[in-house]
Amino acid sequence: MFQFFKRMKTIVSSELNAMLDKAEDPVKMLEQFLRDMGEDIKDVEKAVAKQIANEKILKHKLEDAKVMVDKRQEQAVKAVDAGKDDLARRALQDKKEYESQAQLLNESHEKAKEDSETLKSKLKEMKKEYQQMQLKKDTLQARAESAKTRTKINRTMSSIGNDNSKRGFERMEEKVLQFEAEAETTEDLSKENRSLDDELAELDSDVDDELAALKKAMGKED
Predict the structure, then answer these.
(1) Which one of 26, 58, 120, 158 has the fewest beta carbons within 10 angstroms of its own beta carbon?
(2) How crowded is residue 126: how many other Cβ atoms within 10 Å of its Cβ?
C-alpha cells in the first residue's frame, strides 16, 4: 500500500513532468493521468473502507473480551461467597485468558486504528493532488486553446498582404480598368455610328419647336 502511494507521488512529480516534455499534447497526457489516478483513488477508497471495517471488528472483539473479564470477576466473587472455591478458581483462570485476549486485541486494534488514520491521510493527500492536477489540466487546456487561436490568427494575418494576395488584387484592378475602358470605347463607337438621318431628325425636331413658338408669339396658332 505504501509503495503504491510512493509510486503515485513519483508519477505526479518528476515522472509526470518528464513525460509531458515528450508528449505531443500535454492536455491529453494530463487527462490520461487523471483517469489513471481516479481509478487508483477508487481502489484506495476500497482499501481504506476495508481497513476501517477491520478496525471496527477488532474494537468490537476487544469490548467483548473486556466484558467477559468483568463477568468472570463477578462470577468468581459469587463463587467465593457460595463457598465454591474450585468454581471461583476456574472463573479466575478464564478471566486471565480473556485478559490476555484483551491485551492482544487492544494492541491489534491500536495498530489497525493507526493504519486507518495513515491511509485516510494518504487518501486525502491523493484527492488534494488530484484536484490540483485537474486545475492544472484545465489551465493548460485554456492556454493551449489560446495558443492555437493566436497561431491561427497570426497565420491568417501573415497571408494577408503577401505577394500572392497583392498580385491577385492587382489582377482584379486591371480587370476593372479593362471593363471601364471597354465601356467607354463602346460609347464612343455608338456615337460615331449614328446616321445622318438621326441627326437631321433631331434638327427637324428643334426647328418645329421653334416655328411653333414663333406662331404663338404672332398669334397665328392653328
Answers:
(1) 158
(2) 20
